[in-house]
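HUMAN: Can I see a protein plus its fold?

ASSISTANT:
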Amino acid sequence: MRAALSAEGARGWSVGVRLVNDRRLRAINKKYLNHDRATDVIAFGYGGKSGDLAVSTDTARRTARALGISYREELARYLVHGVLHLLGYDDKAPKKRARMHKRQEKILQVILSGEKDLS
């Protein structure tokens, strides 16, 4: 998360993370967003420089297995995705989704490779 925040020039942020199962994430999604389904990550921004992420470990495991990648990579992807949402990225419209996905994958590539250049 620090790498994603740093890549976006976001300094002084405080972000909490809650790792939960699909059942719990579905309940959170229903209670706060009125969506009766599980998802991968939900971001809650509180204004200023703070927010929380709720991340589904079940979805990360299932997706990682289906894609043949590590659980760690998929979990990191969800954390980066959530941070980008906190910073104002939107993935509802196709062009915005493509922009967010491109940035997310660039940041993730740098994180997983241990590189330092997040530009």
